[in-house]
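Q: How do we represent a protein-ligand complex in a form that can be generated token by token?
A: Start from the inputs.
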Amino acid sequence: MEVVIVPDAQAGGEVIAEAMVALLRRKPDALLGVATGSTPLPVYQALTAKVGAGAVDAGRARICQLDEYVGLPAGHPESYRSVVLREVVEPLGLDQASFMGPNGSADDIPAACVAYDRALTEAGGVDLQLLGIGTDGHIGFNEPCSSLASRTRIKTLTEQTRIDNARFFDGDIDQVPHHVITQGIGTILEARHVVLLATGEGKAEAVAQTVEGPVSALVPASALQLHPHATVVVDEAAAAKLKLADYFRATFAAKPEWQGL
Ligand code: F6R
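Then emit the structure tokens for the protein with fructose -6-phosphate bound:
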């Protein structure tokens, strides 16, 4: 696992967007897995700016969702489909045909989960999966004690995650759905490159446990230690509890530029 410590969230967005640009140059129809929430927004802004400035032609890029609320009406502004369309697909000038996600309004949710997991494989697999991290160490919505081998399925959000996400629902926890469809940890680990971005002191404990703690279902993000190409990008605040911070800084400073992330 590579840990990259950046000064702030904007710098984190830059470094990850640059990796996405490099990927799209190598593979113009790459499948980019995107997360929602506050953390990845600087990535999407930086990527949009780079594409707008002509750094790469993103016209053939494909986008896929990590997770989705269950039961929000179609077109709800906080459904993750709406968020990804608004923050990623439309700014990049992509059409909806290049975008895939799980159907959180399906009558048969288990079937929708299986169908989405299969669709990711049939699309050739995710080339780069961007992740945030919950204060409880969740990735996607794999809450603590999720199976490290899990596939896309329905999960119940913890009370803490619903409290954390109430800010997207006028601060009203009662509006935050209890259930989500999320790519499983096993599904996420199949992406060719997994990039986790964490910013702010509220994430420092989860980051330290993810990177320096044992692999444990109690901290779902720690499963990334098992991935051959996992990159954790953290700002100084989120890096505050890393014992090996100086080592991570020195390693990244000495990294040959051609290697990218
Ligand atoms: C969202 C997702 C979640 C968030 C996490 C952090 O698609 O999968 O794991 O990444 O809850 O959310 P923020 O970035 O809002 O702190």
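The mean pLDDT is 97. The two ends are 11 Å apart (CA to CA).
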